[in-house]
Amino acid sequence: LQSRLPQVGTTIFSTMSALAAQHGAVNLGQGFPDFGCDPRLVDAVNEAMRAGQNQYPLMTGVPALREAIAAKIETLYGRRYDAATEITVTAGATQALTTAILCCVHPGDEAIVIEPAYDSYAPAIVLAGGTVVPLEMEVGAQGYSVPWAKVAAAVTPRTRLIVINSPHNPTGSILRRADLDALASIVEDTGILVLSDEVYEHMVYDGERYQSVASHPVLAERSFVVSSFGKTYHVTGWKVGYVAAPAALSAEFRKVHQYNVFTVNTPMQHGLAAYMRDPAPYLGLSGFYQHKRDLFRAGLAGTRLQLLPADGTYFQCVDYRAVSSLPEAEFAQWLTTELKVAAIPVSAFYSSGRESGIVRFCFAKEDATLRLALERLAAI
Ligand code: PMP
Ligand code: GLN
Fold this sequence. Notes:
Number of strands: 15
Protein name: Pyridoxal phosphate-dependent aminotransferase
CATH architecture of the largest domain: 3-Layer(aba) Sandwich
Organism: Massilia suwonensis
Distance between the termini: 46 Å
Pfam family, one: Aminotran_1_2
Number of helices: 15
Cofactor: pyridoxal 5'-phosphate
Radius of gyration: 20 Å
Order of helices and strands: HEHHEHEHEEEHEHEHEHEHHHHEEHEEEH
Oligomer: single chain
Bound molecules: 4'-deoxy-4'-aminopyridoxal-5'-phosphate, glutamine
Shape: globular
CATH superfamily of the largest domain: Type I PLP-dependent aspartate aminotransferase-like (Major domain)
InterPro entries: Aminotransferase_I/II_large, Kynurenine-oxoglutarate_AT, PyrdxlP-dep_Trfase, PyrdxlP-dep_Trfase_major, PyrdxlP-dep_Trfase_small
CATH topology of the largest domain: Aspartate Aminotransferase, domain 2
Number of domains: 2
């Protein structure tokens, strides 16, 4: 069989989790919490199952969940999406991202991807027959930033889509209002669409206010806004997410979605809809994770690992060049097998495999897990 994705192997996340398990390492590699979710959420799902909510839901998602999502977006970001025509529930953010790409990228189209980038964007663009145009973020003392003038210069008549992600995996950087304005001035008066991956929207630190694309009128008109309950409610294995987009875009999204997965599991949707009535869990998430970020950063401050800024997400990047000259993948393997703390090489997020001497740790862990990892990293 001739591969549709000849460049692609097993994801770095699966690879590093397997290595961590094999060597009994503390797994700060793959991004997922090592603690449970709120038992009230599990109860809400059980209740839905017992109430007989176990058959296909509507193709677009359970209405109560779409309503709850629309209400949350309106309250937080000030834009009203019509739950009937503009919100679609998906099998995690991954499916939302892939489906959004498949519904708008035609063979020969170009899609600009800001790198380092989460690893699912590029393969979806390739499967759609599009061309990935990678554009590297700049990294300085202030951390990572997007050079918008370079993004503007990368636009061609074939550009169909720009993929952005804030808060950003793996760098932990966030886009501020000026960034969204810069992007808006690039796409305004063009046919370019925006795919905004906002799965870490509720993890923004130091009192910073999250800038969703949904809150930006020019961008919201031409954007697919994607999020995931897996991140927000500590249930990465449930694989429930959503996309919010203007009706015309949502209609095209749904054409692909109905033959992609058709629907997403019913009892989880009912449980999430009930649980979302209380905003406290997602409003409290930044504080919850800021504590873990600060604990982890304080522990690493005495090492030779140089901490990069971490403004959002549950990831902390470190520059290890004072410790080792190994390439990133080898350094991450060494950390995992010798120090018994797993990390992810940031080179895996570049199509070029660019080496910058930086690895990513995930701090979505029990404080005790973080302390154990810090003990093991103390000697570095
Ligand atoms: N986008 C980003 C930036 C992510 O980090 C992840 C999760 N690792 C996803 C999308 C996928 O989310 P989900 O598990 O809901 O498919
Ligand atoms: N998003 C998670 C991460 O960046 C992992 C997702 C996955 O394993 N595919 O670590």
